[in-house]
């Protein structure tokens, strides 16, 4: 438990992706079975208990100490699990510290009443960090800033194999994954991935480089289709198992039972998950009403009907089609979707073209209807097999040009990790009128990338030289009509937002240029954003 | 009937002793002062006469220059010094080099001012000595049950594990210049770290002072002496304010650590962007504060600064009369 607790502790305070990979990889290398497997399952979200409700924990601690002192402690720390971990009176020699696997085994076999006694005994025996880790595990959800994908990548690094191999195997494995580690350590053969309903690692596209790629590519080799603005999914119906996965292999079947129910034919579809009303794509904001829920009620499903717009067919019946060329897979996909009795699954139409100029014109002026809200175009080689990962050449994404506005830097916050000595997170605003008719800035977004290291140094200096006020790690920066810094901000779209004072929220904002030359007074107005939003909605 | 408040009473300048006519750790210049230790919020320049341990006087001289007071008088630990009707004895407090409790005796009444103190072992200064007393006047910087400082050797070994795990990065440890820096260095040496430790310029004079007082710190080098890549795998100590400043950019992808009792609370670490919090404190934690009261069982406990209400509550639950003095001017922890 100690090593696991220390791992969680460090992960929770580490920002850098590489450092997180190192921490998880080293832990997996150094920790014996079955502890490391249980830890991995906890990190990937495949092991969660709701054995201890906050009310029980609070009651247990207040039976051990003065409730007034506990209350002050909780007020100070602000997090129940952390407070209890710190204030729980140590009982020296009460028990020895449990191993992670002991905790897991005991919890799986115990009744609810027994569980509470067990937890109290473990809290008596553990150190504060161990108690914190135990409580995180008990109350479900570690929330240490590590994605399942990154955890699996660390597994791949530990064994020196490609991440896609782990992804492909993953859903055929069960914690504590002793067969997986045995293979990675060269002690046994690769475990079988022939598990019905498993996830197939997704094929991803590279961004096209307009200046270079079009000159060397032959348009006759490529198919084009819209890149729809939902989330990429894989829908599986295999050997009686139906599942819906994200492109990283997270199982979201429970969130979208309406979509899973519609998968009538045996096969695996790669497509875009969208809210579809009468075959028409709804906004991404509508889809967000359905995402990140553990379960979903009938009313939400009726209000936001989800469906799949199909891109590709990875398996048909029992046949793996991934090694067929895209042209052949596409034909099969068209027939497959045509046989579907449901309107929840439709086909992403191909966009025929003869020259790059022709397809460029289509991208620049999409026709009325759904293409208006597409993110851009996808270009796929007709002869490409379906290959895991992001191979160079067969598939390209060609996103629509981003929206641009000029906004004024208002606040800057210190970054993390490598950037902790820099003010690198920027809140920017545009002009509007306050209640008294005065022209003021209102924040419209936050961005922390899009600039080079040299530019970061220059902006950092500007922030330090033009600080008006300091609030902990945040500085408010001079932003007046004639004095301040203007950013050209690029973003992918706008949504109405009740959480932001300005009433709009940007999707994927980043700094595209720093306008050292431009006086802040000439930056954009909120009305410009409002107009853009109306255009997006009124397609 | 002699009352404790006739011997010591809070005033805006600090704790005042009428029958001895002196202040203890006054926050403004006064005619006569007794100084418990050298941290800047307790030891200020500009007093008339100062009584302190020789080490504390040395620290004040190093910081403020030799004319920091009109006259000084050194009192060794345990030496009783008369001040008018009162007798003052300085006794080790275990906080930093030279730190003392002020034991004040008058007409059979004994009051002990703890200054800042801790009870655990510190290789850079003598341990706290409990003195039986009628009134114990305690600090309460970490006076909440969430503050349970772990074994400092375990914290140092976490630092060394991280250095081994990330050999391509440097480890930049925030430490207060007086006390914490030298204690962390000694703990590193005891844990077997024999390589040079790189230090920020602001730590150099106090490091030298500790060495003059017999604390062997091993090889130290200025943090400006190597090229960027040569700092990979090295440990660098700097005042907390410098670790996030532009100064820190000279190091390769530093792991930011901070040695402080406040690091017990995750949100505090996150707020400062600390990746490796080291819970190492020169103050008594909750258990030390309460067990000291329990051990001394004073007739009354007075609480000078920190989180008075929780310690007062504990006293109420354990039958020790307690009152908060609400002295102002002392910082949370001595941030130089």
Under CATH at level 1, the class of the domain at 206-399 in chain A stands as Alpha Beta
What is the CATH-assigned architecture of the largest domain in chain B?
Answer: 4-Layer Sandwich
Count of beta strands of chain B: 19
**Averaged pLDDT of chain B:** 94
Computed CA radius of gyration of chain A, to the nearest angstrom: 27 Å
The helix/strand series of chain B, from N terminus to C terminus, equals HEEEEEHEEEEEEHEHEHEEHEHEHEHE
Supply the CATH superfamily name of the largest domain in chain B: Ribonuclease Z/Hydroxyacylglutathione hydrolase-like
The outline of chain A comes out as: globular
**Remind me, CATH topology of the largest domain in chain B?**
Metallo-beta-lactamase, Chain A
Q: Could you name the ranges of chain B where pLDDT drops below 50 across 5 or more consecutive residues?
A: none
The number of helical elements of chain A comes to 20
Distance between the termini of chain A: 56 Å
Number of domains as seen in the coordinates of chain B: 2
Q: Total helix count of chain B?
A: 9
CATH architectural designation of the domain at 206-399 in chain A = 2-Layer Sandwich
Beta fraction of the residues of chain B? 25-35%
- How far do the termini of chain B sit from each other? 43 Å
Radius of gyration of chain B: 20 Å
- In total, the number of strands of chain A is 20
Walkthrough of the structure:
The complex is a heterodimer of chains A (539) and B (336). Chain A has 539 residues and is α+β, with helices and mostly antiparallel strands. Helices cover 36% and strands 23% of the residues of chain A. Among the domains of chain A are: 206-399, DNA ligase/mRNA capping enzyme (D-amino Acid Aminotransferase, Chain A, domain 1); 403-537, Beta Barrel (OB fold (Dihydrolipoamide Acetyltransferase, E2P)). In chain A, the strands form four sheets. In chain A, strands 3, 4, 5, 6, 7, 8 and 9 form a seven-stranded mixed β-sheet that branches. In chain A, strand 12 (403-414) and strand 13 form a beta hairpin. In chain A, helix 1 (2-13) packs antiparallel against helix 2 (17-30), helix 1 (2-13) packs across helix 9 (128-138) and helix 6 packs antiparallel against helix 9 (128-138). Chain A is globular and about 75 Å long. The relative contact order of chain A is 0.08. Chain B contains nine helices and 19 strands. Chain B is globular, with a radius of gyration of 20 Å. In chain B, the strands form three sheets. Chain B has a seven-stranded mixed β-sheet, covered by helices on one side. A six-stranded mixed β-sheet of chain B has the order 1-2-3-4-5-6. Chain B is 24% helix and 26% strand. The A-B interface holds A 6, 10, 12-16, 19, 22-23, 26, 65-66, 68-70, 72-73, 76-79, 82-83, 86-87, 90, 127-128, 414-418, 420-421, 472-473 and B 144-148, 150, 158, 162, 165-166, 244-249, 253, 255-256, 264-267, 269-277, 307, 309-310, 313-314, 317.
